[in-house]
Amino acid sequence: MAAVLESLLREEVSVAAVVRWIARSTQGSKDNPGEAAALSSLRPLRKEFVPFLLNFLREQSSRVLPQGPPTPAKASGASAALPGRPGGPPRGSRGARSQLFPPTEALSTAAESPVARRGGRRRVPGPARERGGRSLEEGVSVESLPGAGSRRLRGSGSPSRPSLTLSDPPNLSNLEEFPPVGSVPPGPTGRTKPSRRINPTPVSEERSLSKPKTCFTSPPISCVPSSQPSALDTRPWGLGLPPGCRSLQEEREMLRKERSKQLQQSPTPTCPTPELGSPLLNWTGGLTDELADPARVSSRQRLELVALVYSSCIAENLVPNLFLELFFVFQLLTARRMVTAKDNDFELSPGALDSLESPLFQSIHDCVFFAVQVLECHFQVLSNLDKGTLKLLAENERLLCFSPALQGRLRAAYEGSVAKVSLVMPPSAQAVSFQPETDNRANFSSDRAFHTFKKQRDVFYEVLREWEDHHEEAGWDFEKGLGSRIRAMMGQLSAACSHSHFVRLFQKQLLQMCQSPGGAGGTVLGEAPDVLSMLGADKLGRLWRLQERLVTPQSSGGPCPPPTFPGCQGFFRDFILSASSFQFNQHLMDSLSLKIRELNGLTLPQHEPSDEDGESDVDWQGERRQFAVVLLSLRLLAKFLGFVAFLPYRGPEPPPTGELQDSILALRSQVPPVLDVRTLLQRGLQARRAVLTVPWLVEFLSFADHVVPLLDYYQGIFTLLLRLHRSLVLSQENERKMCFLNKLLLLAVLGWLFQIPTVPEDLFFLEEGPSDAFEMDIVAPEHGLDSMPVVDQQLLYTCCPYIGELRKLLALWVSGSSGRSGGFVRKITPTTTTTSSLGAQPPQTSQGLQAQLAQAFFHNQPPSLRRTVEFVAERIGSNCVKHIKATLVADLVRQVESLLQEQLVTQGEEGGDPAQLLEILYSRLCPHGAQALALGREFCQRKSPGAVRALLPEETPAAVLSSAENIAVGLATEKACAWLSANITALIRREVKAAVSRTLRAQGPEPAARGERRGCSRACEHHAPLPSHLISEIKDVLSLAVGPRDSDEGVSPEHLEQLVCQLGQTLQCRQVRGGICHLRAAFLCPCVRPDNQSHAGSGPILAAVIMVMPMVSIFPPQFLCPPAEQHLAKCSVELASFLVADQIPILGPPAQHRLERGQARRLLHMLLSLWKEHFQGPVPLQLLLSPRNVGLLADTRPREWDLLLFLLRELVEKGLMGRMEIEACLGSLHQAQWPRDFAEELATLSNLLLAEPHLPEPQLRACELVQSNRGTVLAQS
Amino acid sequence: MILTKAQYDEIAQCLVSVPPTRQSLRKLKQRFPSQSQATLLSIFSQEYQKHIKRTHAKHHTSEAIESYYQRYLNGVAKNGAAPVLLDLANEVDYAPSLMARLILERFLQEHEETPPSKSVINSMLRDPSQIPDGVLANQVYQCIVNDCCYGPLVDCIKHAIGHEHEVMLRDMLLEKNLSFLDEDQLRAKGYDKTPDFILQVPVAVEGHIIHWIESKASFGDECSHHAYLHDQFWSYWNRDGSQSCSGWSGIPGLGDSSASASQSARIKGVGKHFLPGIFVKYVCR
């Protein structure tokens, strides 16, 4: 592999040819025959070139970038000794590739934990794994990976791998030979890593050049273990440390150990950036930054050449992650100083003449020169970064020094840039509002389910609020705090329908809380480095300790952070985990899939860039925003879908290997995907909507487990994604192609995906160059979403916050403190290609001609027109339905009410069977529903054109206007009629049913007592006392009458009279009640209590109420509610009983504690007329003859029957009670046990009353009775 | 009219271990002539309910019930006309209505074959004439009309007060030209839990956005605010956003003293900042 680079450096082949050679599967005919020949001999290695180049650069830069990214380390592993590993012992010929893998990997990846895979592919966990472990922890909330204790240590420097050493020390990475101290013995999979062992694996000299090096991230400092001083010569990267450095090295090692001890003791998992050794180097070493001088660049030509090849690879998307490379270049640019820059370093290397053997970067000057060279080639990308990054870059003095031209361009770009990016989070905890359409009782199978859901909703929010309050507190644990409550709640969700209701709520709340950029929580750009720079290098230790205490570590950690659930998302993840409900998960997946499909298929505004000058700006803001909302929602949903869907397959255990893996694969390939993402991706690519589809797909895939990428189904997806990635060449500008920022977004998310631990890193290099077929397959529409400038920097940075790491790097440079920055990068291992073809599906066209015409019409018009028309249609259609409800249906309901009245009148008290009644009403009314369609059509016809006209610019041509109007009418009508024809009958039935039950209820159970409804007269001033007051007053009197009472207690006759009067007033002063038909009366007589003001303003309000709730009969409220009236009636009857029995203590002269007969009769009379005239509900008059009340008489001495007789006669007289009824009551009285004399008197009374003939003049009789006393009554008998 | 916390506490202080009878209330009125009967009764009722909640259990042990019943039987055997049950209740410091229920239940257990259902008991308490035993009927009736804190009559009064205040609130909203949906309308829309009113156009009062208004006619002391908050307000918030609560019967607390519609609905935004017991006013009629 190196041969290519060498021949390049020797100028045997041109850069262009090399890039062509790499990128294309077939060599271009333009190639110089000599070059072609030189390269063709190396053809089998073509795919290995890029990884080689990347690793080569990383190695070369090892001395410059000692600080490295946070976790650059590869985990050490016993790779060489593993069974089942393809590839054998070291092979001979350099560059010649005889096996699937360069077997040298066995040794080269001393720091890897290799995992044999199907097809012989292997993967390198390395830092990625480490991060993967973290993400697993977060995602699955299981205890950390096996060997978690050692994980942190692993990062401490194991990546070092000597490549150019001559000696051959024991293979320290072999765990069997050198079991790590205190670590678990390596299992058969060999995943357990030696915890404290640094593995300077020796390799034989012959292979030192041909194999890819450990990883192509920036290497940390050399990490020679102090216990192995003899291995000193095996310094990393083949560049030996001078002897004088050893003590320093040892010192560092000790410090590093101390540090790692501290870290191990820290209870919480550390943030993703605890790169232990490297920061110390800078901070403790007291080294000063080296000035970079263009004049001191050692071998310009060589650097230029490599930079050119490197840049070309980046430009051709031959590298997996664009931003990772940029990050690396930025690291070079901002490198502080060479670690052990000694001129004689490379003299140690044999074959110094070989252009590859001498270090590429011999000084800081070389690094900066190289970096600037590369950056120059990528100005376009840089100029599209956010304004802050541009500023830092433009102000970089090294850049100015090495390339004033680039600096000038950057400055210009900065000044012209409007790409201010802020990821400030707005507080969001708004609850999802009650959704009448779906949360309605009617959508639940039973009252029980409805109420359960009601309760669950409350529990859910209670849990959410508690989480909000506590989740940032140290020591608060989600599972401990809320787990049992959540599970108890889930336990109540028995019916499938309740699950779907809850899931809907859950999903809505998720979207509401997390879809905003801020809701994603996470990092605020530039924040972490600011803190770091504020503290300065010497304070960093303090920051460490501080950070250990923080529950949420700051900093996002490198350009390739693992998938996480920042901010509010954490709640939802933990909720899912704590709920651990299979049903819930299934419903959630269903719901998420549905929503994803829906959003993914959303027609986003089509836009032609050269559309209209003034308008488009305004429009674009809105359209971008809409796109951003949809995209972010999709990403969020897909993330959770991925999380839930792959949840059962993920765990802390290592991915399976060998036969186990095969059987798992066989099994898993049978499982249909939770969402047919492949088809969605294919469609998205065909429709040129990759910019919408791919980002969410990436989120989905980022949660895949290790087996997923091996499944045929998902392999197809990855193949597609890889081809897409390769095709997104940024420099190719084309009107019809994708917008630059769209491409950048896709490159960023794809690059990120390729670095996800679960995605095999060899996957990337497995693909043959960009497939031309890929381009051909796409029968693209003229203007797909891809070609529209839907992505802006804000969205780019929101979706990919890790791009902000670039800025952090630059900010660190400015602030003067270097340290924790950077990211993890994984090794790339080339493997063979398994090409799968991309099947294209013909676009589906099944729309009617009319619709196509409408589409064509909109196509030629500004997008705002389409939006307007669609908006109008949508609103008018919806209004139409409401209008029909308010007019036609309401009329029908009114008819029902009057029909019902008739029915009740004709059927008398029977009322008929309600169900039968309803059926009659339905049969009479439902045919009227047919009118709805006609009315709806008419409504849409009438309303739509005006609305369209009002919303479109006045200058719109008449023809366009009328077309727009027609389309709006058509769409609105379609919408309204579709709804009406499907629902009108059901709606009528429902409303009629409601009206009937309402009417029946309002009629009350006793039609006889119902009578006519009365309101108070217009003259009424509504000063009557409140019913509650009256009940209370009467109760007082009753309690006095019942006793016990003090001797001085009593009521005055006046008070009694007043009380009865007030009762009359209260009963009379009631507002109109009844159905909607009475509403007008309410308007005419705004009879509003309590202060009798005239309400000029009440009209519109009532009208508004009617407009909104036309279906509800409005009962103007009255103070007297039925229960109060019932109690008043009962109390008044009791009062009468006490009057009759003369039991009410009267205040007054001591001798006279009784009410005068005349007064009593007057009060009874008043009560009688109240019962007769003013009570609207039933009055329990039979209570007058209840044993208890009659019994009151038994206690009086002498007994006086005249009042009772009077009362009973009056009752009969007024028709309040029938004789038969009284007779029955009196009859039943005989059953009770009375004193003998009382029983006799009672019988007499009974006979007397029943024997009386009907007399027409009650007044006379009343007078007569005034004189009668017990004696006369008895005498008459 | 605002009742200060100190005033409330003073009144509540007088109510420790006072039987909930007419006489007690009369004494209270003499002691605090400036407070209306409704206010006093409301506080009385509230405080007494707290008391009952604390002591309820001890009256419901089977031993207690048995001993009460025996004492009742002995009492009425001596003199059926004497207020046996009422005296018993006052003596053991229990609400007369609740004591009546206890004895009635026990009585029915003895005389009926099947244990009496709750609805039967309730119906008998509402109308003691249905009680098969005349003496017991009188005793129960006496307990109910004399109890000013419990019993069907008191329940009805409370319910009526709540209803009346809702109507008043509605009138005030109408007066202020505020458009709203009331409970019935919301129910018809299918809402499960509804406040009294949802404003169709939110209004801002004293810097707080109000989406809905709930009128609580009972006395707004801190404890009951807590309970309401838990039972209802969060439910509303979960559905409708922030709210308003108006208590009508005064409060130990804060605020100024006008009673216009907007102000009597003194608002606190719900959320973490919702402080119970802050926002209630007393409205005199």
UniProtKB/TrEMBL annotation, chain B:
InterPro entries according to UniProt: CDIN1
Record carries keyword Cell inner membrane: no
Gene Ontology cellular-component annotations: cytoplasm; nucleus
Main location: cytoplasm
Any single GO BP term: erythrocyte differentiation
Domain of life: Eukaryota
UniProt entry keywords in alphabetical sequence: Cytoplasm, Nucleus
Matches recorded under PANTHER family: CDAN1-INTERACTING NUCLEASE 1, SIMILAR TO CDNA SEQUENCE BC052040
Protein name: CDAN1-interacting nuclease 1
